[in-house]
Amino acid sequence: MKKTNCLNCGHEISGEFCSHCGQKSDTSRITPHSLIKSDILGSIWHIDNRFFDTVKDILFKPGNTAMEYLSGKRIRYYNFLSLLLIFFSFNVLGLHFYEKFASEDALAETSEIETFFSKYSKTILFVIIPMLALNAYFIFKRIKLNIAEHFIIGTVSLLGILILFLLDDVVSLIGLWKPVAGIFNVLDTALFILVVVFPAVTYWNAFKNSFSNPGLLWRVSLLYILMGIESLAIITILYRIF
Known about the structure:
73% helix
């Protein structure tokens, strides 16, 4: 195999990529054709492909996605923390547009509790990751994952929740149109149920091969009980302070 020197760092290379800096070995002079095909279209396709593949995997096999990431299969996935920021921003925009286009009657029907959750939902949501990580660390201790690894599983779980919330924002916006309001109210309820059960789906999918069904069932149930108690305590504190 022909050996050349990397144009970036000067190290000798013999494969498709430089083992020292990671640059491709076929780097050559930029032409109009290569600019369009490789630099522009190639970059867009690479980013979009990884982004949407990661979103799809998180929605349909969240636990498996988290465990693959922990096992070292990371190149195929978009960075989870970057995704958190992206979907957090999308959710803020979705809420903004709903409040902008919703009628005064629709906004007036919102209860005080719903208003509280709408205002502080993102704060509550981002407490979910450390709560999930700490609780799961002790409940699933037999798996021997460290706290940082449980943090990743919690991050994937929260990502699924944020993606579902974004879909719910879209459904709520479309539901403002009276002729389809009934249908989209049903979809809104279905999405809310999915949000509630998504952490259970994540941990079941992640550990289904490590525990029996009864063993996994009581562990996931205990996780929800602890999360419910802790969430209630946090909500009570926020409600009294703000």
